[in-house]
Queue: 2 jobs
Job 1
Amino acid sequence: MSQIGEKADRIGVPFVLTEAIAMLQRTPIVIDALLRGSPDDWVTADEGVGTWSPFDVVGHLIHGERTDWMPRARIILDHGESRSFDRFDRSAQFTESNGKTLADLLGEFAIERRRNLDALAAMRLTDADLDKRGRHPELGVVTLRQLLATWVAHDLDHIMQIARVLGRQYSDEVGPWRAYLRVISGTQG
Amino acid sequence: MSQIGEKADRIGVPFVLTEAIAMLQRTPIVIDALLRGSPDDWVTADEGVGTWSPFDVVGHLIHGERTDWMPRARIILDHGESRSFDRFDRSAQFTESNGKTLADLLGEFAIERRRNLDALAAMRLTDADLDKRGRHPELGVVTLRQLLATWVAHDLDHIMQIARVLGRQYSDEVGPWRAYLRVISGTQG
């Protein structure tokens, strides 16, 4: 809205590696600030059967650090399109997070993310590297740039999800204000 | 999902004042962690004409600290249902944030929030106070408990919005992964 008249109605910021890395660094801090110290009923709250709690989401993010983003980046750099990525297990956290506390998971996520960003920096990726292609088992040919952009957007997707899951826990408590709160009504904008 | 079989498919955590205050304290930290130091094109990015950028959202939150939540709490305690709340200006930030930087706004928000939570603590609200009623100009009778629950949910609504606005800026850059990212596709779950 602050930009009306200054640009056309299309959205998008071009991928810049240093900016993407800065955002990936923020995520463990943002999620820690949202969740650490919260009572268990908030941490394990979800949006109904089959949906994830904040606890589940953090476990999912840890599994992504270990098996998804950087392993796939290495497959692209080492094998290109000749070797498909391994499939990602979207329910790994239901066993891997067993017996852990939220504080355990927040600590693990921060450590794994740091390790991955150190490894990413050590790759000293060029624009030509970012154009390199790999093969996703379902989506087909993708580039390293798209993989890294997706890592960022995926973080933001799950920050959005955690905020939504938490906000919805007050669906009843807000009373008539329910009509105004998009986090509860489910509308966007 | 971690809770399947342990509870029915309904969501909600009951309002507890100390928990609500803890969440209200987190919000400036979360938003600071999400945004501080980001390049201008991210901070002023929006979702198209008529939508808000992260910069706009922080200005809106500041205006709420000054004119919405605590002023309304005081009207409830001092006047009950006899005096309607003043209307809230949802576009005040477009003039009030003029000429300011994001860092200015993040600082103002943190200060105003701290001041309001100090004032809220000083009220030493009882359960009976939380049941007290006021009058919203459009929604009619509401309680102080509902007002405070809405303050929390409203924070989370806008954290969700900031994450969504940021994530959508990579709509093109993620390539085929667009189909999997709810932050971009706009689906929920």
Job 2
Amino acid sequence: MGIKTREQYLNSLRNMSPNIYKFGELIEDVTTHPATKRVVESHAMNFDASNDLELEKIYTTKSSFTGDKIHRWNSMMQSSDDLIANMKLKRQNFRRTGSCTGGVCVGWNAFNVMWAVTKEIDEEYGSKLQERLKNWILHAQKEGLTVAGALTDAKGDRSLKPSKQTDLDANLRTIEVKEKGIIIHGAKLMIAGTAASQEIFILPGGSYREEDKDFAIACVVPRDIEGLTIIEATRPSDRRDLESSSGYEVPDTGATQGLLFFENVFVPNDRVFMAGEYKYTSNLIQYFTANYRACIGACVSGQGDVMVGASTLMARANGLSSKTFMDKLINMSINNQVNYGLGAGACALGTKHTSGSFFADPQTAHTNKVMVSTLPYETKRLTQEIGGGIVETGCMPSYKDFTNPEYGELIKKYYKAGNCSAETRYKIARLSEWLTIGGGVPGCMHGGGSPDGARLVVRFTTPFEEYVDYAKKIMKIDEEVPEPKK
Amino acid sequence: MGIKTREQYLNSLRNMSPNIYKFGELIEDVTTHPATKRVVESHAMNFDASNDLELEKIYTTKSSFTGDKIHRWNSMMQSSDDLIANMKLKRQNFRRTGSCTGGVCVGWNAFNVMWAVTKEIDEEYGSKLQERLKNWILHAQKEGLTVAGALTDAKGDRSLKPSKQTDLDANLRTIEVKEKGIIIHGAKLMIAGTAASQEIFILPGGSYREEDKDFAIACVVPRDIEGLTIIEATRPSDRRDLESSSGYEVPDTGATQGLLFFENVFVPNDRVFMAGEYKYTSNLIQYFTANYRACIGACVSGQGDVMVGASTLMARANGLSSKTFMDKLINMSINNQVNYGLGAGACALGTKHTSGSFFADPQTAHTNKVMVSTLPYETKRLTQEIGGGIVETGCMPSYKDFTNPEYGELIKKYYKAGNCSAETRYKIARLSEWLTIGGGVPGCMHGGGSPDGARLVVRFTTPFEEYVDYAKKIMKIDEEVPEPKK
Amino acid sequence: MGIKTREQYLNSLRNMSPNIYKFGELIEDVTTHPATKRVVESHAMNFDASNDLELEKIYTTKSSFTGDKIHRWNSMMQSSDDLIANMKLKRQNFRRTGSCTGGVCVGWNAFNVMWAVTKEIDEEYGSKLQERLKNWILHAQKEGLTVAGALTDAKGDRSLKPSKQTDLDANLRTIEVKEKGIIIHGAKLMIAGTAASQEIFILPGGSYREEDKDFAIACVVPRDIEGLTIIEATRPSDRRDLESSSGYEVPDTGATQGLLFFENVFVPNDRVFMAGEYKYTSNLIQYFTANYRACIGACVSGQGDVMVGASTLMARANGLSSKTFMDKLINMSINNQVNYGLGAGACALGTKHTSGSFFADPQTAHTNKVMVSTLPYETKRLTQEIGGGIVETGCMPSYKDFTNPEYGELIKKYYKAGNCSAETRYKIARLSEWLTIGGGVPGCMHGGGSPDGARLVVRFTTPFEEYVDYAKKIMKIDEEVPEPKK
Amino acid sequence: MGIKTREQYLNSLRNMSPNIYKFGELIEDVTTHPATKRVVESHAMNFDASNDLELEKIYTTKSSFTGDKIHRWNSMMQSSDDLIANMKLKRQNFRRTGSCTGGVCVGWNAFNVMWAVTKEIDEEYGSKLQERLKNWILHAQKEGLTVAGALTDAKGDRSLKPSKQTDLDANLRTIEVKEKGIIIHGAKLMIAGTAASQEIFILPGGSYREEDKDFAIACVVPRDIEGLTIIEATRPSDRRDLESSSGYEVPDTGATQGLLFFENVFVPNDRVFMAGEYKYTSNLIQYFTANYRACIGACVSGQGDVMVGASTLMARANGLSSKTFMDKLINMSINNQVNYGLGAGACALGTKHTSGSFFADPQTAHTNKVMVSTLPYETKRLTQEIGGGIVETGCMPSYKDFTNPEYGELIKKYYKAGNCSAETRYKIARLSEWLTIGGGVPGCMHGGGSPDGARLVVRFTTPFEEYVDYAKKIMKIDEEVPEPKK
């Protein structure tokens, strides 16, 4: 059965070998350690949803291979509607957690992209990579796995290709090809949600030429594979997570970004889907970013929905009608819907690959990436504007002070404002703060790549000379008007 | 055969009775008079496209009734893809004409909306309105008609309902119900493209209650029906259209907006699809605006494409590489693709009516309306920034001066700049001017209704209380936080 | 006496030789010809103001040379307050005319800039240029002259320096130095307000090196000097100006932009203030743009004030309370005040030249230029949003139709909306149209140079390395962090 | 001597009684405790500057009373230049500390405002309040005091006036008037920089009527006055401040916001400058906000300068040329200069009070407040865009991990990118993070009041009817066009 429960999921995580560190400490149980339990909880809620009568239509679907019911995030995406279903799941996730569920996001996209890429490779080389991949997908569907994904390499000197780096480890590479598998070495940085994942799908971080073929690696590994060490990054407000009173200052959900160090990791052949076929890295990146940047609009709109909710509440907790801020709330809703609707448009304008995979329209998807790196910032600004000073700069004491036996009552006395207790006002203000300058801030700027990269794609997908011809025809201009020679 | 040629179309227009005025003059032949020939040319190009091997896939389709090949603008829209096909046609139109082809836009949407509304009415009243409509649609498909649409009434005092106006004619109304038809009286204002149309589809301009049932009118009339007088409005640069040298200052294409005065116009029953069924005006407006505001993104993106082309050309004509302005050109392209992709998203997120008609998602469509009333202004601003002073404020002499026997050569001498003749530079600059502050400016602000109206729809389609609940659940807040009592 | 009346001014214009053309026609009397009477009226109103008890404090001042009362636009600007007084006059001008009074703008700045530049030249060369200039200023003050200014050359191929152009006339140049004066030849393009001016102050259009010294020309000539031909440019709506009913469609005020062709024009030495001293063209341009771009904020804010007024009126004429649009009106007012206040800030942060002239702070002034090329576009967009469709795309008939004996009454019947006559509503809508897409659109984008030029100045006045040091000190970073070598 | 040294200042703080708490702990020595030492260091740097040959011209001036050299922040502001000098100091402060020096900001403005208000009161009541104030100012100048200021009350239910609150303490109030002074009770919230101050100047938080006269209080108290308890608020990243490795993650400078609880605090008469004169609270608020909101542009531009510096560095540390991001850096610089120049404009357009105090122009100052709550958000967004993922979401491990004996070297290996060590790259990324989503985020949204409050002032200082008249005159409209009656 492809549908797992929260408990099955948590048990599975508990059974893994510890290899994640934060603040110098090895995390023995990711499901209870304060540094990782929030990201795990965010993903555990996906399993709740898969088993919820109302939400299961979003969170589950049928396997295109077996017809079995499976978690949606383990499914093939083979139509515009499948991509939009991905978006719906993501928006819902953010609405319920206020944060990123990175452990069911990159990996999902990765195996769908590889479905197309392995077909292309197989067609040239007569290999059987797609079949390998299919076997792994069937396994993932059956086990209901949460599969993180990893693309970004350490990169080293940005002006040099991987094979020209002083330190060749700056990009993850194959250091040895063995009969039964490959040995990989290097790092993947800024990887979301691994603490909540059971496996990690690895893709190359760029588009490579022949001299860089050792870096053309796609494979999938258990999160606790031997030789892999994960260090969780620190975010502005994550020390709060460690405190006993954290439930009042920080939600029970959350996200993580981590550093993955691979030291001589052996990956058996049946989990390797690209190892040297550099020619296909370019398509791989194109397919991946098109889908990823189409669907990312759903993440930020989902978090935007929570900001709309938090701001509405915040107004009331401050003793004001939320209608006072209706113009701003409408603007927030518009921002959310631009990012979401434009993502859906990228899906609707997409094309089907011969393998059956469906890819969003690149120009629209990358346009949305630019919007995703702009509009949520305005939404956050409005959240702070509506919320007042206690949201903007955390003009509130810690929960430790709030409950201090000596002066805690004084604080509560003076923080009472609207039709609710000082404590409720406190929690809402902390939520707005967390969403806008705390740990809830999602990586909408660089997650999935930089906006400048997206602008480049827009540039190269805009047919400037065709547009020049329209202008000339409209004015009946026959003369050539060339670029100046310089 | 439902596909007509340019000549058939022009002949049909020539055969109509003259009832259009401009500058105090009755226009005898709309196909040659300088006040209307540009809008006719814009629509004649649709017929060229329908008969063009490459463009016919955009401009034609099969009738869902007969299976015959018909002009796309005469077709039923019954899926997300049908709506997106509408958008593709619109974008293409603007690319080729630089302007609005209003004569194939509102009417097309109108009969599709009425397909659903007549079904709803028939179901309640047992009437046969949908069949009537079907007959007319078959006629339109067979004749390959260009059908304008008319919604906006004169309205009079905005604070009063139609039946409370001092002058009841302020909204088009039924003044008599006869056995064979109805007699209507009043005006429809700001109606696009009627001079290029053969028929005009009339819809009610608002959502009405019982006391206003006389204003609940949907019907279709020949453009030259007895009792109808049309006055074309004047735009900033349309006096140029009248001059013999106009081809150098103004494109051969263009748009019109007109005033329609109905004086005791008799409409026979087989062309009447609503006459008093006020209860359905609300749905009618909802369906209409959802589709209209989804697809309008295609218009402004098509014109934006021409602005990108004109600006690229303008840079070169000024002697500069267009790459100098690449950042601005990319921003323009992004603006275009937001409006287009968001429209496509509204289509993709739409729903199918039981009648078979397909309607775009209101929240996304109205969000796009807000974007459509914002982003093209920035695109125009960038067109002026790239083009230089000669574009912005028309710092160029008239074509009459440009060709003046005495000093015309001096002008040409001094207007030569880039790798092209002074005349070509002149024409490109005029195009950019026309697109940004001349007759080419489309009604992206109020066409299809005001942005504030759209914001209201966004407000009422945003589930604020649901979002409040997400925020509360995330922070485990159980307490009620009501709006202040005031 | 340095204060002239409207009549004295108009008489002076009437006494000049005709050398201005438009639409192929020589304009005999600029004060009555429909192509120029509006710009003359705009400037005549300055003389009214100078003789008005309330406005004279803005429009007049005392000569720093003689102590006599003079028109403010003939005065020296030698303090921050003097520059701000310039701004106040400009804002007031726009408020009363809705348009540009270019004939008292560039010339005023030009002689103040040359006051500093001639001092610098005199100090190096021992010349007496400043004294020459003083004599001319005394003459201008005494006669109360309206002095236009001309900088922009035709330029030809932008990638080549003036002396490298195929056609050397592409930039105005000295073709012969005679004992009593110089002979100049070439063109100045896009020159504002010359039809309303008595003299034209000429400055070089760029910063030149030795090989281009023939182009380093500063001098002042009567507008009707022998050898000078002026062609007025055409703007989108200026054919309306020619019609007898123009008063209803277009204000009585207005602006012009013209082409100035100099053919072997002799300028006597006492009117020449730079002829070859190329080394000082760089300072000249710097001084000029700093002051010009500081004060230009006052122009656009003044016109913005009229847009606020027109929009308030328009709401009422449409039958709506202006309070409905209060948020938008406040945004418009904020835009106006940013441009005005930032200009005032540039003045306040300016510096005094050793000559006594006062120059605005370049970084702030050029920052304002960028704002001036952005914010008024948003103000115009809001004017169109508030005004409704009849403002945006001129969805109103011509005045000729409005008063047509046959159907004019019908038009009036249907255009009545608010608490005013249809005619008043008509005029307000035309004003809003004229301000936003008609002849009232000021050259806020390229007037005084391009925004990209301003961005360059911001770049070179921002001390990046100093800011890097602040960042390093804050984090106690000692290590060098150089730019990558490539 | 009015100029103190860093050591004198720190000693003075050390000699005060402890009354500040954070995280449940009483802070014994604010100069060394990790929760307060950063804000103290920020202010100590002011004393360094006052004694620095280059900076003293910004940080010191002459007393208008005694002619003695004093710290600038103890001086009277009696001209536009004095206000601009305030701005220069603030920009410089932010450049050197990256953060707010609230302890020399509100208090400085407060006593200057009271200089005017006490004169007004004295004139009506024949009191000698201004003389009292003068004595205190002389004392502050002589001792070189750092004087924080406190306006914002707890407020309670925003819909009720102070005297109508259930809990009268919701606004600070006089609970008893004694012969030698007054006894005050209540709270002031969100008060900046008190931990670094020696005294706190208290002003009323609103404009009051007679029934609220008990809340009309202006006085000044030592920070450690009996009955006053201060609780420091917590910001997202301030737990980092407490760690031993904090120097690598957080600057040595910083800001604090605190809660001030006054319990039966006795203030002797010679320190009371308003106690019940409610009529003058309205002027007081007007004067205060005009100056405060003019000068606040200098704070955010100073911090913006640091963001420009950090971003330039960040690009290099990532191995890229900062020129790659030149467009973004120029936009950041423009944002900074708009806020700064517009503030200077508000000063330049200000007016002199009969008391000698000088107040900025309200319309311009409040316009700047709106800009200050908008532009820095864009500057922060650009800082994150340039910086890459490690800046945006803190995709970097803690310093504890960075130096971990087991895997620290691995982290450093993979974080090396540009021409600098991994450690330097780490620190710069932390700085950018701190500036944009960490403790360095200044209160530019609500500091000095909400932007909506500022918009209200813009509304009431915009003469809409005067602008309506301009529009009417331009179109020669005589008819009245009233607001609709409703």
